User: Which sequence fits this backbone?
């Protein structure tokens, strides 16, 4: 149990997928302009990372390793993510229209979010991760991404009216702020030895 | 050996996922037969659920105006949906005002039919149809205005109310990568049910007008749909004022023909604004109407007559001439057709002389 908590905290804070690895930047830069959409996309990412990490772990452990085809992990993981997102979209549309309409347009966007693929690939680098560890790792990474985009959306809404030098407006200032937040996140490394 | 295992397992994984998706689609996307209850039960249609409301209505023969073909960019396909609609979608938001949201107005190209729906469709939309007409003639009325006469396909007839408009499709050409639709008022005598006349002024740089002036040929086919619009004559019997210049004459040609057909004896004065003599159109038609209708007067007004025009008619802005002719407008009605600027100026002049705002009807373009 303690072990799972450590995995979660490490994934969400010290090894934050966005602030430590800088993955999933494209949708982060594009969407973080507004708080409402950021929260929507953030939760969609949490949902998809958690389940694709688990599915990919199962596929890797029970199909790819026994057959000796681990080198196919990239292509298999991408296909699984794409199919999973499609499936989730259909299920949500059917059973929770209100959730579909708030999340719906972000789901297809996630298919090509490299943070999702990153989570599945990093999970394999961790020694001795079992099913539950992978699930928690995926969930923690998603929460980390959600945290980062909410932080950024909050800051961007604050600085909307500020006089930013013309050359830095838009993604320029966003990248600088991302760097500063990333430095702040380094402080979390003391939390987990 | 590894190669074949790799290819085989990849194909197997992709195949399993594809089958899963197909099965999911089969069961999850099946909404069964849904009922569309239109205008409080005046009409009921049964459609297969799962596709957009616009397409579902189309499949039952109800044609809702849409210029963008269901992409959610033109905002023309607005309908009131009172039951069975999910919350407003992000793709609808830019097109709906606060009042429209409170009034359950939706874009029917974005809405999917997932259950029984109750909706309201204006009666006149039931008459809207699509045609592939033939350009019968293309005639210059002056230096920048043409009359386009379109014959409907053999055997087709269209009932119009004078004042309504049609949309014509400009096919893709060098100015536009995709077909665009533009609306023009119908200038046809309503008794002629097999033709549509449009009066079109060349707008510099305009996509559709440039096409009509430079590329259109007689005998070519032209897609059009309609009729639309609620600009029409009232039956109050009040004296009427028409104000329009240039191609704004179109609806009045149709209205005057209707007045003549029906033997309506209301007093009508038509103030036609133009810059100089070369901008006037259809003077012979107007003279014919004046001869046939003792209560009709045509008043062309030139704002900047040229020296060699030898103009002895009214001069000045059409709004000023109208104010001079009709000092008291409290018991009259006005019909305007023109640009928003011209309509607003006319409304200001009309209300200044006492016309109640509810007696002013216009067709802004």
Assistant:
């Amino acid at each position: 149990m303690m072990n799972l908590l450590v995995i979660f905290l490490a994934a969400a804070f010290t090894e934050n997928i966005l602030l430590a690895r800088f993955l999933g930047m494209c949708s982060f830069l594009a969407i973080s302009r507004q708080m409402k959409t950021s929260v929507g996309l953030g939760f969609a990412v949490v949902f998809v990372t958690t389940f694709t990490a688990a599915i990919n772990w199962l596929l890797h452990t029970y199909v790819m390793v026994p057959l000796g085809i681990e080198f196919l992990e990239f292509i298999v993981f991408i296909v699984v993510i794409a199919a999973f997102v499609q499936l989730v979209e259909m299920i949500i549309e059917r059973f929770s229209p209100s959730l579909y309409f708030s999340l719906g347009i972000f789901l297809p966007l996630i298919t090509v979010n490299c943070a999702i693929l990153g989570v599945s690939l990093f999970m394999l680098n961790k020694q001795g991760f079992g099913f539950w560890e992978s699930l928690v790792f995926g969930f923690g990474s998603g929460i980390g991404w959600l945290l980062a985009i909410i932080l950024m959306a909050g800051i961007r809404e604050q600085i909307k009216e500020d006089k930013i030098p013309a050359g830095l407006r838009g993604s320029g200032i966003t990248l600088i702020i991302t760097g500063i937040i990333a430095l702040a996140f380094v402080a979390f490394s003391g939390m987990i030895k | 050996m590894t190669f074949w295992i790799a290819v085989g397992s990849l194909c197997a994984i992709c195949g399993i996922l594809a089958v899963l998706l197909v099965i999911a689609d089969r069961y999850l996307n099946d909404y069964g037969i849904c009922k569309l209850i239109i205008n409080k039960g005046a009409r009921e249609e049964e459609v297969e659920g799962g596709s957009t409301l616009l397409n579902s209505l189309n499949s039952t023969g109800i044609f809702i105006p849409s210029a963008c073909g269901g992409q959610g960019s033109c905002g023309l396909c607005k309908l009131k949906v009172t039951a069975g609609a999910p919350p407003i979608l992000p793709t609808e938001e830019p097109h709906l005002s606060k009042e429209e949201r409170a009034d359950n107005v939706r874009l029917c190209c974005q809405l999917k039919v997932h259950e029984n729906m109750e909706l309201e469709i204006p009666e006149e939309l039931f008459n809207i149809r699509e045609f592939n007409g033939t350009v019968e003639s293309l005639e210059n009325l002056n230096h920048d205005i043409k009359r386009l006469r379109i014959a409907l396909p053999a055997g087709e007839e269209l009932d119009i109310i004078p004042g309504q408009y049609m949309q014509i499709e400009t096919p893709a050409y060098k100015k536009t990568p995709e077909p665009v639709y533009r609306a023009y008022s119908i200038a046809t005598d309503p008794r002629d049910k097999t033709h549509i006349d449009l009066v079109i002024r060349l707008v510099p740089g305009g996509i559709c007008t440039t096409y009509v002036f430079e590329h259109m040929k007689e005998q070519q086919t032209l897609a059009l749909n309609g009729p639309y619009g609620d600009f029409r004559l009232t039956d109050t019997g009040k004296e009427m004022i028409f104000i329009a210049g240039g191609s704004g004459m179109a609806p009045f040609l149709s209205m005057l023909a209707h007045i003549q057909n029906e033997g309506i004896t209301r007093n009508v004065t038509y103030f036609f604004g133009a810059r100089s003599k070369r901008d006037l159109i259809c003077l012979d038609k107007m003279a014919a109407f004046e001869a046939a209708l003792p209560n009709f007067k045509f008043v062309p007004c030139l704002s900047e007559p040229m020296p060699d025009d030898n103009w002895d008619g009214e001069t000045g802005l059409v709004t000023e001439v109208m104010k001079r002719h009709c000092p008291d407008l409290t018991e009259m009605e006005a019909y305007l057709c023109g640009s928003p600027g011209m309509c607003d100026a006319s409304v200001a002049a009309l209300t200044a002389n006492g016309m109640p705002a509810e007696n002013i009807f216009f067709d802004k373009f």
Observations:
- The CA atoms of residues 243 and 271 of chain B lie 5 Å apart.
- The interface with chain A takes residues 2, 5-6, 9-10, 13-14, 17-18, 20-21, 24-25, 28-29, 86-87, 89-91, 114 of chain B (CB under 8 Å).
